[in-house]
Each structure stands twice: as structure tokens, then as C-alpha cells.
Amino acid sequence: MKIRKTLPLSLLVCITAFSFTSCKSDDPVDSYNLTNGVVVLNEGKYNGNNASISYYDFDTQKTYSDVFTDKNNRGLGDTGQDMIKYGSKLYIAVYNSSLIEVVDAKTGVSKKSISMVNDANAPSYPRSLTAANGKVYIVLYDGHVTQLDTTSLSLGSKITVGANPDCSVISNNKLYVANTGGMAAVNDSTVSVINLSTFTEEKRITVNLNPSTIQADSEGDIYVASNGNYGTIAGKFQRIDAQTGAVSDIAVSVRNFCIMNDKAYIYNFSYDANYNVSNKTIAVYDVKNEKLLNSSLVSTTLDNTPYCIAVDPSTNYIYVGTSDYSTLGKMYCFDSTGAFKYSFTTGINPSKVVFINK
Amino acid sequence: MPVQTISGKELTGLNASNISDVAQHFAGVTVKDYGGIGGLKTVSIRGLGALHTGICYDGLMMTDVQSGQIDLSRFSIENIASVVLFNGQPTDLLQPARMFASSGVLSFNSLQPAYSKALTGEVKMKVASFDTYNPSLFLNKYLSSKWSLNILANAIQSAGNYPYIEQLNSSGTNIEKKNRVNSDVKSLNSEVNSLYHFTDFESLSFKVNQYYSERGLPGADIQYSTYSTERALEKSYMSQFLYQNKNSCYLQYQFGAKYNNSTARYSERKSTYSTLTDNTRIDHYEQNEYYLTSAFQGFPTNYLTLSASLDGWYNNLFSSSNINYYEAAKPTRQTILGSLAAKYIHERLTVSANLLYTFTHETNTVSDAAADRKRLTPTVSLSYQPLEDKNLRIRAFYKNIFRLPTFTDLYYNDFGYTKLSPEITNQYNLGATFTEHYSGLISELECSLDAYYNRVSNKISIMYGVPYSSVRNIGRVDIKGTDVSVKALKKINSKSDLSLNLSYTFQLAQDYTTGSATYRDIIPYTPVHSGSGALIYRFKRFEYGYNYVFSGKRYIGQNSNASNVLNPYIDQNVFTRYTFRKFSCTAEINNLFNANYDVVKYYPMPGRNYRLSVSYKL
After folding, report:
1. Residue B465 and residue A73: Cβ atoms within 8 Å?
2. Domain-by-domain residue ranges, chain B?
3. CB distance A185–B168 less than 8 Å?
4. For an engineered disulfide with B550, which of B157, B211, B373, B570 has Cβ 3.0 to 4.6 Å away?
């Protein structure tokens, strides 16, 4: 009762308060489709709820900065870790929201969001995606791999792999998973080999400490980039022989790479004393003949630090996403000789590229 | 130097539960609040960053060498007599040297009851929304006319599971209603104080404080997820004594000592910790401080005061974790501070200056330690009353000081950088205060207006990288601002009065780093406009109050672009209190209009909530 006396003033202040709150109008969403261009998954910032999808259209040369929100009226979630296109759909692993988003690859409309949880109903954190035989294989950072049926969009059985598995690749009907042990007492240094016919782990191949990126060539050889422990044990670029399973070192420094048409496109950089990024290079390595073709393909100075690399199979154009980890990123496009073609702005931390060709 | 004080009825009339709730009513203060009772709360003064604010409890500075910041959520306002904000430094010269060693000081002092033969004190019970219970007890006994002893205990238990609104798109047209999870708190703060007065001007005080807290750290609100398991267990023990002798009018002195031990255990159960026992990551931290201080002041002439103070202390930090990327560091730091100060008061002019010398020496068992540091930093201030019959004073100060890199900045595995230099601040202030007593419409009026220019250079900035980020001294921030505050009191009659306090701050804190991509963009989390107000009406046994805190838009990242905007907010509260003899009953409504806002993005603040307290004074 007594409070009533102070109410009129409170109301007055409240009215002034409303004038502080700006009203944003919704931008009209173009009825664009993802028909011919580059789809970029932007990781966003961890705990920033700003994972997003950018789309650069080859025909119109226009960039759409937030496809998922345009099409679904909601954000993609926190930390976009991986994205693949399989059939008519895009599959997106949203790590910290622990979700798999299944999206129509043409319209960008979500068909299903699948919450990834373990038996205790706690998040299992999807880390990387691969697809074969009508299934998407989901690597979970809690040490498992599960499968998603791409027709029914229902999850299948789950198997255990090493600690904190990161990237994965399929070769000869086998799934290779790099076990980082990134959140273990000691880093892992193995690659799990999973037979996809039986969906069982066949073996673990020991590589250098803390393997992360993993790719395969046409002969079935597996290439692994590892990080070491960032101190006494250095990172390495290694090859696992398809036939013998033997592991050999390659004397090339690699932060991250991708393989296209039996060429590994590699980026590397280092930090100087002032923690500025230096020695940014894009190298090309022939994985069939095992030799370095070009140690520095690109002469263009990149604005920031490389964050992802991909090659368009139809043009052999090389795409390098760069980031300063806090502001909007940039996607560079170079032709196969390393000449700069164009660039476009992405979201924060462009982490994955998918090409959609007519 | 600008000094702002909130005490007595003003302090209890702000719907405040902890010191940061009070501090946000000072002009020029920005509070960073991660929400809820257990959410980290820190204050920064005039855009300088929270690590530049010294926190002082009952005359001696608090410490945290690990993070460099004191979490104010642990300091309840129970039994606090006054909260004072000093821009620059306290004006009293008989102070530990450490009081001169930060860009500003937020000081709070506990209640000391007047002499009484009987046992005095207060028993209080607060019950609030989200299953919050907060009993407290304060007892004071004078063992003789010279010696008093008091004990204080304050316990908080809260579920803290308040509802909030998560926006799924930036326009706010698609929302999800959620509740905070893992935000429960259990804490107990207990304290024993002894105060012995040899004479009216000579005293020895002794304090022992013990704090325990076990709470959930709900973390950032993550879209499509409600999972949160990180817990913090904190224990701290502190004891201090302070001896002061002001018997002589030629030479006065004080000595003090303090020991502080605090431990923190953070644990998080997550499926990704699959190789760790019980899927749980556990980090331990322990830090100690041994501190000694002495200060002297003399009065060679009627106009001049000279003082010298010398402080020395030792800090160490132990940390361990069961996860691979954490290497246990055991850094230590020895600090010596010496200050020489002089104050000249002549008629309507006061001029004071001091010079502070800092020496630090560090060791580290695991890797290199930072090199020794030696620095000399000056402060000058002036106050002048231009008209003899008007209580108008013009004031100005300049202060050059720095903050040391924290142990996290220096020694945190892979992130830390031992070659860091201190982060330097230069403050320039020009202002005026006006105080008047009237017989008409207003009984008492106190106004102040200050314009300031601050520069932060050698800024300790995070250099983002993969897989690790690091820190370097890069960057400069310039802050131009104005603080305004008005305090008015209207005495209606002997039984009723009306008081109004208003404060407003305009500040432009901008990135002035040469070659920065965000040159002249606004520094994150520093609003251009902010302010507060409180209106209290007292009538016989009743008290009614309304107060608010508002903050204009802020940016959450280095870029002052639309995607980084954090919306403005106004948080308004009302209360009513009824006091009858020894009983007092207070009903509060906080966030009256249920504003949905974040102080720190994705750390939602509680909506409308209620608090009822009943107390009995012995």
C-alpha cells in the first residue's frame, strides 16, 4: 500500500526509459536460394551465440551474411564446428549448442535440429561430420562416433573412439578419426580406424601427439596434421600408408590443410615475439608423388590469420578464410596459380566451406 | 580530489544487497555484473578498467594477485557504515602507501556502535525471490569503556534459478523463456573485531574474517542448451591489525599488518572430460599475502602536513589442474612501496602532492619470472575556495599510476607473458563542488561537477591466437568524461524529510591505439551515458524509497558496429520500511518494471524480484 506513493515518479522514469530502447525493424528477407556459390560456416565466438552461415553467389557476386537466420528466424547457435553437403542437404555441427542442424541445401531452411546428448542426457558436443552409404557419421568430442540416417534423420548406434576426437575422413569404406585428447590429462596421439560395414573400431594407429586435421588421397593414404603440445613436442605433418598402415613424417610445416585432386593445399604461420602473426604461407604438396610443388603459392598479403582452407573441385580455385578471432572474417579466393580473384566478408571465424555448383 | 560517500540511511535506501549495488550509484562508476547473487561483480572508475580500482576494507587494501580483481558479490552491506569512492586516492595523508597505488579506491567501513554498557547488535532475516534466505547476526559488547568486541555472521542460501528471456534473433521477435540453471549459492561470512582505545586519539583494532562460498557458475546463456555444471568452492581467511596514534599534534603514526589466505576450487563435469575421474575437471588455486604497513605524518608549521609511509608485502600463488593444458606455476611477488606526501592548507587554498616509489621482485618455480620493476609515480591536487562566503570549491588533480600485470597475465600457461610492463594511467581532473544550507524549499544541497581526461597506455591487451591467445602491452585508451552529482535534502519537519541523490556520467572511452583497426571505436562495456538516482521519503516510522540505475548502449566487442551493440537498460527499485522501537521491517521490489537486460552479454540479470527483511536491534 505504502509503495503507491512513489509509483507516479517511477512511471515517469519508466517512460523515459522506453525512449532508450531502440526498435529494430526486420530486414526484408530476400527470397534467395543457395544455387551457385560458396557456403561458409562461421564458427562465431565460443559462448558468443553467433555461429552463422554466409553465402557468396557466383552469379550475382552478392554476399548474404546470415543465411540461417534469414531463412529460419533464429540463430544457428554457439560455435559452428563443421558443415558438409550430402545429397540435397547441408549437415551442420554446432558444437557448444550440441546440435546437428539438417538444412535444405537449396533453400537454407532447417529440416530438423537434433540435440546431441549422451546417455546421461548431457551434451556430447558434435565435432566433425563425414558421409557415406546414406549415413552421416558424427564425431562427438566426448569420445564417440554416431551415425545419422539421412532419409529418416534418426540417429543410429554409437561407438567409442579415443579421447576428444576432432576431424574425420572416409577412405575405402573406413572412417579415420583423429583423437586429440584435448581435454584429457595427457594428449592423445592416435587415429581411430572404423570399419563402416560393421561400424566397429578396428584399431588405433599411433601418430604424433595431438592430431587434428585428417584427409585422404585417391590411393587411400591418410594425411594427418598434429599440433604436439605447443611446447616441447612440435606439431607434424604425417602420412599413414593405405596398405601397410605405416606412419611416415613429411618435412612440411602445417597448421591446416585440405586435399583436392591429389594435391594438399596447406597453410602455415607462426607468432613473433610480439605475438603478431608472421610467415603466413600457402603451400601445395603433391600427395601422389610425395613432393612439395610450391612452398609459397600466394603472394597476396592476407589481412589476418588463415582460419580455414578449401578448394572448389569444379574450378580448382583455392579459398582461404581469415580471422582475427573477434571481428568479421574474410574469404579470399585464388586461382590455381595463386593469383588473387576476389574476396568477400564472412562472419566471425570462417571455419568451413561448401561449394554448391549448378 | 573527488570523494563520494554513501552512508547511513542513503546506504540502506538503495535496495542494495552487496557493495557493487551501492557502487553503481557513484558518478563515474561502471559495474560489471555477471548476474545473480553468485555472479562476479567488479567496478571500474572513469573508464579505466576494473583492475585499476583498489578495494579497501576497514583501512587496508584487499588483494587478488591471480586475477587482480576483487569480486564484490561477496561483500554484503550488512554492518557496513559507509561506502566511499575516491577518484585518484584518499585525501588523508596518514595512510598505508598502498592507498596511493591505484587509480581510484573503493573503500567500505564496518559499523562501530557507540559506547554502551549493554550488549548491542542486530538480528536480521531476509527472504527473497528464487528461494533466497539470508540470516545475519551482529553483536557488540564493550568489555570496558575502552575495549569493544564484536562478532558478525552472515549466511546466504539461494537457488538463484531466475527466469529470463533468450533472444533467438537480433530483432527479438523470436524468443525462448528459460531459467538460470546451476546458479545456486551457499555462503557464510563471519568476522570478529576488537577495538581498543588507549585514548581518544590512540587505538588498536584487530579483525579476523572467514569466508566460505560454494556456488554454481552458470556461465553464458547458450542457445539451445541448458547445460551448466561448473562449480566454485572458495574459502578465505583474513586477519589484520591496525594501530594508530594521533596523540601528538606534531607527529602521528600508524602500523598495520595483514595475513590473507584464499583458496578456490573450480570443478566442471562434462562429457568431453571423458578420460578424467568422474568426467570432472578440477582446478585448484591457493594464494597468500603477508603484509606490513607503517605511516607517519608530521605538522612542521600550521599550514603544512608532511607524511611518509612504507609498505612491504609478499604474495604467492599455487595452482594445479587435472587437465593437460595446464602447467602448475608457483609465482611469488615481493612488493615494497614508499610514499612521501605533503599538504599545504592556507586559508581557502589546499595543495597536496605525493610521490610513490614501487619496487617488485618476482620468482617462479616452473619458468622464468618477470624482471624487477622500479617506478616513481607522482600525484598533485589542488582545491580552492574562490569566494569567502560561498562554499564553492574548485578542484583539480593529476595522477600518474599503473597497474601491475596479474599472475594470470604473467604466468598462466601458454597464455601468460613474463615480459609485460605495467599498464599506465594518467588522470587529469578539473571540477567544482558546491554545498549550501538553506531555510527554504531545500534544506541542504550538495552539487559537484567534474570534467576529466584519462589516458591508459601500455594497455595489457589480449592477442588472440590459435591454439592459444597471449597478452602484450599494446594499445592506448583515451577517456574524456564528465561526472555530475547532486544531493538534496528537504527537512519537512522534525519527523519527516525527503532526500534526493542523482548522478550522471558522460564518457567517451575510445581506442587510440596507433594503427588499430578499431581506432576511435568505443571500448567494450563502457557506456557513453550512465547514471543513477535515489529518492527517499521519511515520515515518522516509515521510509519509502525509489531508486534506479541506467546505462546507455554499450558495445560488447572492439568494433563499435551494430552487431556488437548491447541495449541500454534502466533497473528501477522501490522499497518501504517500517521501524518501530527495536523492530524494523523492509519490503523491496527490485527491477520493478521487469526489465530484461544483460550487463554482460549472455549473462542475463534477474527480472522483477522481491525481498522481505525483518530485523531486531538488541
Report:
1. no
2. 3-617
3. no
4. B570
pTM (whole model) above 0.90: yes
CA–CA separation, A50 vs B563, rounded Å?
10
State which residue of chain A sits closest to B220, comparing Cα positions: A47
CATH class of B3-617: mainly beta
Query: Residue B57 corresponds to which amino acid?
Result: Y
Which of B227, B275, B576 faces A185 most closely, judged by CB atoms? B275
Contact indicator for B545, B586 with CB cutoff of 8 Å: no
Minimum CA–CA partner of B547 in chain A: A10
pLDDT along chain A (358 residues), means of 10: 34 36 44 95 95 97 96 96 97 98 97 96 97 97 97 97 97 97 92 97 96 96 93 92 94 96 96 91 96 95 95 97 93 97 96 93
Please list the helix, strand and coil fractions of chain B in percent, rounded to the nearest 5, in that order. Answer: 5, 60, 35
Closest CA to B272 of A129, A157, A138, A165: A165
Residues of A in contact with B274 (CB under 8 A): 142-143, 163-164, 183-184
Amino acid letter at B51?
A: L
Question: In Å, how far is B110's CA from the nearest CA of chain A?
Answer: 30
Q: Phi/psi at A17 (nearest 5 deg)?
A: -65, -35
User: In the prediction, which pLDDT does B30 show?
Assistant: 95
What HEC string does B243-300 produce?
Answer: EEECCCCCEEEEEEEEEEEEEEEEEEECCCCCCCHHHEEEEEEEEEEEEEEEEEEECC
* Stretch B500-526: mean pLDDT: 94
Radius of gyration of chain A (CA): 22
Dist CA A281 CA A291 (whole Å): 17
Among A14, A122, A305, the residue with its CB nearest the CB of B593 is: A14
Cβ atoms of B341 and B352 within 8 Å: the answer is: yes
- A15: Cβ contacts below 8 Å, ≥ 6 apart: none
